Every structure is written in structure tokens, then in C-alpha cells.
Amino acid sequence: MSLFRDDGIVLRTQKLGEADRIITLLTRGHGRVRAVARGVRRTKSKFGARLEPFSHVDVQFYARGSELIGRGLPLCTQSETIAAYGGGIVTDYARYTAGTAMLETAERFTDHEGEPAVQQYLLLVGGLRTLARGEHEPHLVLDAFLLRSLAVNGYAPSFDSCARCGLPGPNRFFSVGAGGVTCGDCRVPGSVVPSSEAIGLLSALLTGDWETADACEARHVREGSGLVAAYLHWHLERGLRSLRYVEK
Asked: Is the Cβ–Cβ distance between 60 and 52 less than 8 Å?
């Protein structure tokens, strides 16, 4: 038996038996981890409330053998709260739905348990912190998180140079299959012609230019969100269940 300690974000929970839960976390050092937390559904549980979605926690695991991810699920034996982001998220519908989509995205991009995904972890921590503080509109925070998650996983879209031939922009056409904007010569069937404002918004969200993003008109924000959803759907091969509930 071995003890492991890591910090992570609780992605979701599942009931197990009468009083236990299976906790899914995205951790800094071990990537996505599923663990059993015994007795946390009892009213006298000392740390059950800390293991709720959106919580940033320091966790101790107890596992068989010398590896955290082995033949069976490890036990979560201790947890300490680092940041309770849920308090600033679950009381607001727009923040809650955006946050839920962020958790689902993080889980989908870390489909192999035990493989470190530090960049995805740091993106999630930063995204939830921004969401909980209400620094920007929730749907903008979500779209920025989705674009950056795609980028760190090798699917960064191009919003300036042609995604096929590299012709410097601005380029008019956008294709999810081509990897972003394309020039007229590289245009593929099914391409769309979004407004320059929507493309500028997505570029700003990807690079962290919040001054530009916050000043964008609502119609261009909706247009940009549609492009992000289509691009994410293409690369994940199926959409996010939670994305349909996000307010635009």
C-alpha cells in the first residue's frame, strides 16, 4: 500500500453504495484520477462537503501497490480546501452552466487516467477562479477556456494566417475541418464567412486580450460562440452535453 498527495479540481461525483462516492478529479501531478471517498454522504462526514464539483482541494490518496492508478480505485482518505470556487459559481445560473461545461471539457481532454496534464489543469484552475470572481461575462470566460484547451491539446485554430498555406491575414473564410481561417485559394466546401468582429473576438479570447473581448457587441459574441462550439465538436467528435444549457 502507498500514500499519494496531490492537489486537484473536483470534476464530478457519483454515488456508491449507501454512503460513499466516486470522486473524479483533475490533479496537478497525476492528471485525471477517480477515487473512492468513503462515508462522505453521511451527515457527520468531516470532509464530504469539500469534495464537491468546482472545489480546488489538496487530497491524500491511499492506493494498492506503488502506483496511484492500478488495478482498483484508490481511496481518498483526506482533503483540505485550497479554494471553494463553487460558492461563487453555483448561485448564478450563467456561471454555473459555463462552469459545468468547463469541467466536462477538462474531463473529455484528459481521457487517460494517471497521465499528467499540467497545462489543462492550470487552465481549469485559472478559468474557475475568473468565473467565480465575476471578472468577465461567463460565456466569454467559457469560450476563452474552450479555445485555450483546444490549443494546449494541439488543436489551436488560426484566426489570421491561412490554416492551410499560411498566407498572412486577414482571411475571410472559416472551416473547422481546415483548422481555422483560410484564404480564397484554400477554401473548402462548407466554409463560412464570419464577420471580422467575431474573428477578432476569438483571437482576443485565445490570446487573453480581455479589453477587446469585453467591448465586443452581443451579436458578434453569439457568432463567435457558434464557431467555438462547432470547432470543439469537430475535434471531440461529439458535443458537450452541458453546452446546450449555457446562456448566450
From this structure: no
Integer Cα distance of 134 and 241 in angstroms? 24
Tens of pLDDT, residue by residue over 1-38, are: 788 999 999 999 999 888 889 999 999 999 999 999 98
Distance between CA 102 and CA 124 in Å, rounded? 7
Largest CA distance in the chain: 66
* Separation of alpha carbons 158 and 218, rounded Å: 22
Report which of 104, 110, 54, 105 is spatially closest to residue 82, judged by C-alpha positions: 54
How many residues comprise the chain?
A: 248
The answer to whether residues 116 and 31 touch, using CB atoms and an 8 Å cutoff, is yes
Sign of torsion over alpha carbons 211, 214, 219, 223: positive
| pTM more than 0.85 | yes
Dihedral of CA atoms 241, 95, 87, 146 in degrees, nearest 10, equals 60
**For residue 170, cis peptide bond before it (omega within 30 degrees of 0):** yes
Residues above pLDDT 90, as percent of the chain:
76
Angle, vertex CA 113, rays to CA 157 and CA 27, nearest 5: 80
> Cα separation of 225 and 240, whole Å?
13
Give the integer Cα–Cα distance in Å for 51 and 60.
Answer: 12
